[in-house]
Design brief:
Elements lengths: L3 H20 L4 H13 L3 H14 L4 H13 L3 H14 L4 H13 L3 H15 L4 H13 L3 H14 L4 H13 L3 H11 L1
Helix pairs in contact: 1-2, 2-3, 2-4, 3-4, 4-5, 4-6, 5-6, 6-7, 6-8, 7-8, 8-9, 9-10, 10-11
């Protein structure tokens, strides 16, 4: 499930990152970008290797700390992810991605109310659209049994991908839960 740009530019980007590393060996920014590339391509061993080097050179280097949090989330290591995120939030208290990552972690830990709080904080610092954050919000509201708010976010997700069967089914289920049976039926038809 790579983004189209990652597929198209992935190999070239890695080549450029390796060249940059050759020009500035041990540069924490280059290493953090390299780790990000490896994380995007699910090569967790190489990502961890790059992060170790970056954080050894500069322990509080925010781009590397952020990628380290992403790594622990990807590896499903909640304790380490939480500790890294809390440390990162001290370093960059208004970084919207950190709050989004914490929302993801809390949703994985089946703590939807707290996930919503962190997702909303992320939104307050970002002001942009972020489909992954909207998905966290929709799923968290659904876990809480709040079909009305879940529906709001599922409809937002539909604007990003109008033919996504999972989203259409979630909208249908939420419409049914709010008592709007005709809208639910329409969404189920679209999903088929």
């Amino acid at each position: 499930p790579y983004k189209a740009s990652q597929k198209a530019y992935g190999p070239k980007a890695l080549t450029l990152l390796r060249q940059a590393e050759g020009l500035a060996p041990g540069d924490p920014l280059v290493l953090a970008y390299k780790a990000e590339w490896y994380l995007d391509h699910q090569d967790f061993v190489e990502a961890q290797r790059a992060l170790r080097s970056a954080l050894k050179a500069q322990p509080d280097f925010m781009p590397a700390v952020k990628q380290e949090a992403r790594l622990y989330l990807a590896l499903k290591e909640p304790f380490r992810a939480r500790e890294t995120l809390l440390r990162a939030m001290e370093l960059a208290p208004k970084d919207y991605e950190l709050y989004f990552f914490m929302a993801q972690l809390l949703l994985q830990a089946d703590r939807p109310e707290e996930a919503i709080t962190f997702a909303k904080r992320s939104e307050s610092y970002d002001f942009g659209t972020m489909p992954a954050r909207d998905a966290v919000m929709a799923d968290a509201y659904e876990k809480l049994g709040d079909a009305k708010n879940a529906l709001t976010y599922y409809k937002l997700l539909k604007t990003y991908d109008p033919k996504n069967v999972t989203v259409l089914t979630k909208i249908a289920n939420s419409e049914r839960a709010t008592g709007n049976l005709q809208a639910a039926e329409d969404q189920f038809r679209q999903a088929m």
